[in-house]
Design a protein that fits this description.
Two copies of one chain form a homodimer. Chain A has about 300 residues and is of the alpha/beta class. Helices cover about 35% and strands about 25% of the residues of chain A. Chains A, B: This is 2-dehydro-3-deoxygalactonokinase.
Amino acid sequence: MTAAASPDASPFVALVDWGTSNFRLWLVDGEGNILGERQSADGMSACAAENRFAAVLEEHLEALNAPLSLPVIIAGMAGARAGWLEAPYVETPTALSDLYRYTVSPEARRPVHILPGLCQKQTGPFDVMRGEETQLAGVIAGGIETGVICMPGTHCKWVDLEEGVVRRFRTAMTGEVFDLISKQSILRLSMPGGASDLNEAAFDHAVLDAFAPTFSLTTSLFSIRAAGLLSTPAENEAASRLSGLLIGAEIAGMREFFAGGKTVHIVASPKLSALYARALHLAGADASPLDGSALVRHGLFAAARKLFIEV
Amino acid sequence: MTAAASPDASPFVALVDWGTSNFRLWLVDGEGNILGERQSADGMSACAAENRFAAVLEEHLEALNAPLSLPVIIAGMAGARAGWLEAPYVETPTALSDLYRYTVSPEARRPVHILPGLCQKQTGPFDVMRGEETQLAGVIAGGIETGVICMPGTHCKWVDLEEGVVRRFRTAMTGEVFDLISKQSILRLSMPGGASDLNEAAFDHAVLDAFAPTFSLTTSLFSIRAAGLLSTPAENEAASRLSGLLIGAEIAGMREFFAGGKTVHIVASPKLSALYARALHLAGADASPLDGSALVRHGLFAAARKLFIEV
């Protein structure tokens, strides 16, 4: 997909969100206005084997007629060990506004800066993130410097943010486990046909089950299959119950993050945001969805300003 | 695989354990002594599509020179809805010695009896078993009529047995979830090379983690991956930790079964038995491994006696 750059605009920097399976690039001016945009499936996985990172980047920049000297700033898996050039993790607690200091620059025909991910060794169990830290910088750019941020997805990140500093964070494998169990375990037989509407009663009931002090995930899953054999549940009941058990278990496991009545800011697609907000309300928590669509770009732009203007 | 029948023996019945992916048959005399034995990959999955059940059974019997009128008794998935002929679940609480009353007989050239599975609707969450009930009948035949039986595997069954009656039971998807997560999730990258020796310290530590009141499985898994990125764990540490988290979570979820100091009788392969016994000891429970290899045959033989001699 291509959006043509306005011919008379003067680009300030190219911002790149380079994930495992997706590539996204924006050409922006000094105010952060978008002058051109590219998106493709040239993620880290597609580029790593033949080390196509530099070539892919140049190809996309050329398509937008970007000047040869235009600098580029990149967040995401391009900075992983298996990526273009490793940008070593920065350890928590860490100020997100300082991450630009730890960018690494691979060999390229123009200035290229890859932002680092975050790791946790002391402030909680071992954990890592790569890409989400730049979304968090975007959250800060949007005015939220202190709070609990919940970022659902394949690997859900919960983050304790305090005056722009990531104090600690924790990952739940909720999305990946939902995917594996719903598509590949015996439970797949009880949820044919893929996505369907939420069965609110089944979801809520499952979330509340997962909040019980004696709850155990693996000993609760099989009843979904048994219910399909012993009764005639509604078509969307099994998937909604699985979703409720997993999201409920995640929220129960993250209680320490929002204890004491803290608001949980949710960064996700509208559909997923609504599910998490619903479950958080059942936990008595305050949930506030954030528009996540532009966060990476805002975080990249904030880092670019630090790198090229403010310093 | 074939064991030749002794030429002058007089078979009393053929016993069949017909699972999803395996077929096993024993020809026995009136005392239960094995006269011949067959094993193959003709499980339910391989037979269902073209309804080869009768043909496969006759082929194996012929190979053992079984008399044309010899009766057959079958346990397992051959009695599932997708099997040869559905043997409807018998609901708990139920006396295992009575299951022979609920066999079904498919059309065949000889008397064939398929034993039913068990279901639970009132004595706990919806649950089902098919095949394990015959192993349980074998446990009873071995002299244990009252106790807690733990049957680890793909779908682990915990059973509350009282004077030969299954009061209630519960399934944990521990084996299947271990398989999916270790082979297909992001954690696979931290546990290459498949099975290796147990890292006892990592296993024990994980089991104890899973016993904590605030434990949550999905929020604990990712630290295994992060540890692989941030430190240099021993080669067998990641898989042992995953195993400990999952078995620990299962045992914690099944606490009500062995509360009050009840001994847990474990029915599994020696290796898996040892893992469960180790984790149960950490929970302060008494664990006693049972030799599971002959249980199905003993259960089938007990049902055959009821069907053909005692009645």
